Amino acid sequence: MDSFLTVYLKSKATNISKYLNEKISYIKTHHIISAGLIVHACALMNLLNNNYPLFILLFFKGYFITLVSRIYLKKYENNDKRLKYFYNVSTWVIILSTYTIFSNLYNKKIGIPLVCLVIILFLLCNLNFMLDNYNESNKCIELWDKCIKTVINKDNVDNLVDFTKYFDDSMLIIYLMIIMTFLYYK
Question: Does residue 115 share a domain with residue 90?
Fold first, then answer.
């Protein structure tokens, strides 16, 4: 289940990807993914140069471009395995580079309670993904599902779905940006 923010962003990204496919057909998925990587790199350069507001602006723009590329890939070039691989690698490059730079810049401000909070946020996001994307063919998700259902009964799982929708990937980015802003101004 998606949060209100994810639903809104996906609708806008769908409109943009449809426009790009119909009106500017020479732009392909790899162009959009590369643009997202470039915008994220510019955001990280601003973080390194201590221009935090511009980092936040560019990071959110880069995230939206990445969302557009995901929707464009699913709708118009879904069968290309190389593009899916390129998208996944680019997403990991964005996550790991942001983590590495931010944690190296603010390692003295990061404490155990903050690390525990981030771990809990990631676990809730993972739980949301698992509850939303369950299918029999995915063994990893099936294992998570069995673990959850042994601890929690079926009625509580339905309540958990309503709760974890506020911890999908878009909301997780917002929460992490709030934590990063707190650390920056601390």
Answer: no
